[in-house]
Amino acid sequence: MQALTSNENAGTAPSSKELEEASITELEKLLSIPLESLSLRVLEISQYSALLAFLPAQNQRDVGMTLLRAMDSSGDVPKNVEELQQLYNILTATATTTMTQEEVSLKSKVLHRIHHANAQVEFDMLQLSRARLAAEVSFLVPIVFAPIVFCTLRLVNRVVQESRVVVEPKEPSEQPVEEASKTEEGTAGKEEEAISGKEESPAATEPPADAKEKEAATSDDDKADKEEKPAGEEAKDSSGEKEEAAGEAATDGTDKEGTTGEVTKPDEDGADKKATADDGKAAAEPEPETKAPAKEPEGTKQEDADEVTNVNGGEDAKTKEPEAPTVTFVEPSIPIRKLFVFVQDTIGMMSKSHPEVTVKLFLSSALAADGFAGTKAIGSEAFYQVTQELVMQAFMLHETEIQEAGAQQRCIVQMVGTLLACRALEKADYERLITKATQYAAKMMKKRDQCQMVALCSHLFFCITQEGETVGYQNPQRTLECLQRCLKLADASTTAEPGSLFLFVDLLDHYVYFFENNNPVITAAYITGLVALVREHLESMNGTIGPTNASIFHDARAHFEEIMMYIRRKQSSTENTKFAQISLDS
Fold it and tell me: What are the residues facing 327 on neighbouring strands?
């Protein structure tokens, strides 16, 4: 163990002495056992890397593959630069000229999972990965460098978002409205208390003085009558005493006006007695002179409260509209230009061996730089120049390194897509770049390829969003020139090879697209003439196409019929009447 420690500190191979076959097998088994349960945590085991160095290259590769599979299953990632350095010390031995697709895929997954809470630490980990992987065999370069490029672009977006600060406006104060509402509630409460207090006051409920005197006089008369009457009659008349007193009280008001009232004597069945008793009881209750005002129903109070609320704080109240949040930017934690320089250097390292991949990475990076230039972040004003520089590098590499026709066609498609998405380029720079891309399309080897690529480049001169709005650069006449040139190329190609009939159908599709999106120079006459031309070719070639081009001819006819159905639907629609100008009659 002491020898292993000294060898590790010295940074040299442990020993030139080869182990026995049995020792190699047991050592490999010993090193592989903890990988399934610990995964990347085996790096915490002391002397693990030193023991691994004793194994031959093939056995080290087996252990490294086991570690990669364990990391893929558990999702473990290196937490810092030191752990990543130890991981690459183990994985470097797995790099051979016979590396399988599984090994390449697992190594790429490690790169894509690199993440750290500190952006600067994550950038250091990406720099370390590029330095360690650059020493591996050449055929791995595009596979392992492409993830580094895209991880760096992801880091660019993260740094920009972290520098973005949203300042929320202060909410308008609602205290005056609340105070007004409380004041109204307090006023209503006081009025209600005053009304209830007035109803319960003794002055309001006490009977008048005249009523008191009459009650006293009545009681004295009753006492005198009781004394004069015999005992037998006292019990007989006791039931009618109350009725007489009640009758006198009921007729008191009429007596004052000069009218007299009589008390009705009860009949034998007692019916009149009961009625007279009830009337007397009701009349005996004194009526106050001043009546308390009637209490308002609760519904009325609620409506008044609602009116107060609406006036002070309801929907009709005039309150200050909340201000929109403002966005400001602080200095990024990592200079954005530094990140793009790293991206540019990384892409350039594989320009000679894999030019097509390099062109696509340059264009993807240019699109990311254009997106950053569209923000208001610090330093973003000049980033349209970075976008232009990256696009120009892709163009130069296309000219010098890409010779195969298929690769050229794929690169032109990527160029057109990137330029259509860019929004930060200056008008003069954009004109120069789209003209250059169109020239590349016109220099394709085959006329069929020229026709397809020039037709695609026609969209660069009349940019349209998905909503049908024109954005950026507009030159409708150049669009028409591209399509007219494509018609000549399609005619020459169809004459030499009848299977190229689909070119006319594709061009018809382009014409309809620009016509629908209001290109001023694309009129209905062009579409009418092209429809007649395609029908003429279909009729002349029907039955003369060989088995080689039969499927192509069938697809072209089906595509043409779909376009005809689309135009007919537009003609029947009342929303857009311009399609009625197109004649589809044969």
Answer: 166
Q: CA angle, corner 354, sides to 348 and 356, nearest 5? A: 95
Record the tokens describing residue 407, joined without a space: 């690769």
Neighbour-count burial for 133-147, b at 16+ CB within 10 Å, e otherwise: beebeeebbbbbbbb
Structure tokens at 117: 């809470």
- Assigned token pair, 430: 């954009």
Give CB contacts under 8 A, 24+ apart, made by 197-203. Answer: 198/292, 198/293, 199/292, 199/295
**547-582 pLDDT tens trace:** 777 888 899 999 999 999 999 999 998 777 889 999
C-alpha–C-alpha distance, residues 23 and 89, integer Å:
22
Q: Between these two residues, 451 and 5, which has the higher pLDDT value?
A: 451
Spatial distance between the Cα atoms of 84 and 114, rounded to a whole number of angstroms? 9
- State the number of CA atoms in the 13 A half-sphere of 296 facing the CB: 14
Specify which residues 407 forms β-bridges with: none
Taking alpha carbons only, the member of 412, 502, 395 closest to residue 454 is: 412
CA angle 303, 304, 310 (to 5 degrees): 90
Helix, coil or strand: residue 470: strand
Residues whose CB falls within 8 Å of the CB of residue 310, separated by 6 or more in sequence, listed in order:
316, 317
Do residues 147 and 133 make contact, with C-beta atoms less than 8 angstroms apart?
A: no
The C-alpha angle 108, 114, 115, rounded to 5 degrees, equals 155
Question: d(Cα 222, Cα 460) in Å, to the nearest integer?
Answer: 120
Instruction: Enter the tokens of residue 536.
Output: 């003429």
Between strands 326-329 and 164-167, the pairing is antiparallel
pLDDT tens-digit readout, 273-290: 444 444 444 444 444 444
Distance CA 385, CA 367 (A): 12
Burial category of 476 from C-beta neighbours within 10 Å (exposed 0-12, middle 13-18, buried 19 and up): middle
Instruction: Kindly report the pTM of this predicted structure.
Output: 0.69
